[in-house]
From TrEMBL:
Cell compartment(s), UniProt: Cell projection, Ruffle membrane; Cytoplasm; Membrane
Biased composition (Pro residues): 47-66
Pfam families for the chain: 4HBT (PF03061)
Lineage of source species: Bacteria, Bacillati, Actinomycetota, Actinomycetes, Kitasatosporales
Biased composition (Basic and acidic residues): 22-31
Molecular function via GO: hydrolase activity
Organism: Actinacidiphila oryziradicis
Protein name: Acyl-coenzyme A thioesterase THEM4
Family membership noted in the UniProt record: Belongs to the THEM4/THEM5 thioesterase family.
Entry keywords, A to Z: Apoptosis, Cell membrane, Cell projection, Cytoplasm, Fatty acid metabolism, Hydrolase, Lipid metabolism, Membrane, Transit peptide
Length: 233
């Protein structure tokens, strides 16, 4: 792993690439804002929106800016209240197609002593990025999520996250997120880019537990889920 350099930026060489730097031909693949490396490759769908992508459109029925989004499922590791060691991420609708969220690192979330596990931080990013789809009223699952870990995050830290949808192309929803330490203006700890893929409710009933999906849909606290299902039958 390469060492951090001034400004939190890093230059890393990803195996299988030639260590491209920012400004290369986009056709060669996505150029990471942070690392400067390209990560898309021919035959492997990536994080660069295609030429026919358009801007995201906030759904008229999306929650108003500032409104808490609540948990979409009580047992969700990211946001559910029914997971004692879950992240309990609290998300709020933002302006446009953005979401803000907060997550406080607990002792159960450690990797190294006193520091958040990287996978936990990815989960918090995934949860926040996924919540953006509510503003599109789209049911979608994470297809790909790429993370840069910029600073260690100590236990007890409240991570302030912000995610924004940047483009939509067919079923693909492109979003980016950043997590800052201590306040919405604090130092950047993590960044991520992701593509979500729209799915039908059958994705959950066929692959998951149909009875729990049904229960979740009748839970008044999951009314936003039900609303999304209604517009995406
Ligand atoms: C219990 C009740 C509640 C149920 C849940 C309710 C609601 C959930 C919805 C929202 C929840 C709101 C907030 C939640 C917040 C966070 C939750 C975290 C989200 C997750 O944590 S969720 C778990 C992890 N996630 C998965 O478990 C996905 C596993 N996976 C698959 O299920 C398939 O793999 C799938 C469906 C992704 C695609 O399969 P498919 O057959 O439907 O579609 P296909 O392959 O044809 O791809 C179509 C187009 O997407 C492009 N594409 C595909 N994969 C790509 C990739 N990886 N990278 C870049 N592009 C990709 C193709 O290139 C093509 O693009 P093109 O159209 O241009 O050709």
């Amino acid at each position: 792993m390469s060492a951090p350099v001034k400004g939190g930026e890093r230059r890393r060489k990803i195996p299988g690439t030639n260590g491209h730097t920012a400004g290369k031909d986009p056709a060669e693949g996505r150029v990471s804002r942070v690392s400067g490396a390209t990560t898309d490759s021919p035959g492997r769908p990536g994080l660069t929106p295609p030429p026919d992508a358009g801007p995201p459109v906030r759904h008229p029925a999306a929650p108003a800016p500032g409104e808490p989004l609540g948990a979409h499922y009580d047992l969700c590791f990211g946001c559910g209240g029914g997971q004692p060691h879950g992240l309990h991420v609290r998300s709020y609708a933002g302006e446009g197609v953005t979401v803000t969220a907060e997550f406080t690192v607990q002792p159960a979330h450690q990797g190294a002593p006193g520091l958040a596990h990287g996978g936990i931080l990815v989960s918090a990013l995934d949860e926040t990025l996924g919540s953006v789809n509510w503003l599109l009223q789209a049911i979608a699952v994470t297809g790909r999520l790429e993370t840069d870990f910029v600073r260690p995050v100590p236990v007890g830290t409240t991570l302030h996250l912000r995610a924004e949808c940047t483009a939509v192309a067919g079923r693909k929803i492109y979003s980016s997120a950043v997590g800052r330490i201590g306040s919405p203006d604090g130092p950047v700890a993590v960044r991520a880019d992701a593509v979500f893929i729209r799915v039908k409710v059958e994705h959950f009933t066929k692959n998951g537990r149909p009875d729990e999906v049904k229960v979740a849909m009748t839970d008044p606290d999951a009314r936003k889920v039900a609303r999304a299902f209604e517009v995406n039958p």
